[in-house]
Amino acid sequence: MSTLKAVRGTRDLLPPETELWNRVERTAREVFSRYNFGEIRTPIFEDTSLFARGVGEETDIVSKEMYTWEDRARAQSEKAQSLTLRPENTAGVVRAYIEHKLGEAGLLQKLYYIGPQFRRERPQKGRYRQFWQIGAEVIGPTSAGSESPLRDAEVLEMLASFLDELGISGWRLEINSVGSALDRPRYVAALREALAPVKHLMCEDNQRRAETNPLRVLDSKDPNDQELINNLPKIADYLDEDSKAHFAAVLAALDACGVPYHVNPRLVRGLDYYTRTTFEFTHGGLGAQNALLGGGRYDGLSENIGGPKAPGIGFAMGEDRLILTLQAQAEQQATLADYYIAPLAAELNPAALELARELRRKGLRIEVGDGSFRLKKSFEVANKLAKKIILLGEDEASTGVLTVKDFATAEQTKVARAELA
RNA sequence: GCGGCUAUAGUUCAGCGGCAGAACGCCGGUUUGUGGCACCGGAUGUCGCGGGUUCGAUCCCCGCUAGCCGCCCCA
Question: ∠ CA(A306), CA(A32), CA(A26), 5° rounding?
């Protein structure tokens, strides 16, 4: 095969599908702006160490899924800089927050982004090497209230509203608390201790996880190990009083606004920076990739990458997966143009274009045919592309009264061109 | 990164060691200022790429690439 193709894991988005993408993005912008979020756009590549320090050296994302290269050294004496296509956007947003000293404003920063991310994984339905995320972060100094459980609940309520407004039905919110930066190591130690005598009874994957990342044992799907897992210590029992109160306050606020949720004590997430609240919105029908979006609180992230204390909470949605879900729910119909203008002779093409210009200026969606087409062909094409056809013959051009046929009703009328709408 | 399934027309797919098939779509006609419906006719193509076996390979074998499913992980 010598013909060039989009590289593995990347793809072209074409009309009419792009219409759906635009609708998703437009809805996100509208909903987020009602919560007073502003848009941030960060570079698509960053210094590699941002992700190593921010996301976590030991995470799968950083250890094996990044697109990293050595940039050319700027001078002989200089070492080449290691750059990486961003595998997620939170680290970049927090880097920008630190770099521009946004915390000095003393206010909460509420930022959203829409853009491509890159991970080198094996492609599958709903999983691509270039994929799109819509995400948002609420971050700021503690004095601005960035640590308040109200912020967690507001973000979750916003997400529920967004999914509802978009028309995604059947989503499920799972929520958990993984504790503070102090709670977590205590729990992991307890988990290791509890796993030691029983791990040899578990599947190979879990035996490995018990060593490398005991938290991951919790979301194992292996049916034979479920009973053993259910008997392991619960994170809830290792939360300190502050973390417990925080989690209870988040749930109480969700109850107050009527957002349905399921507490899932086994929900752990893969990025190192999460503290306290973690959550996922899932949807059936996405196969193994059932997470529509995921997120959580990251109270220590800013300090991890050398910034001031700036607790925050955020999420990332898989836009590709939102689109797949919407497409599965209802086959997206191509949107039809309002009018198809059919000039009846090639000499009338300029007049047709001029008429199109007039109608487009009124905000109408117009397709222009070609006078060299036979009328039958014009009708066939028009019927596929537009709601109505405008016949532009000698009579119509000279009198300014157009012949308009509506495909839905098969009704044909004469309309003065000024009255077209 | 690991395991499995798949790759034939624009699309969805059938097929067989010996001339490349169907449906839908497309093009033309029945209808030269009237579409959809119907009928008649037509064209679909490096059978993913490379190699091997064979008189002969789209078919069998090997490699590669890509997609899908599962795992890992995540959005």
Answer: 120
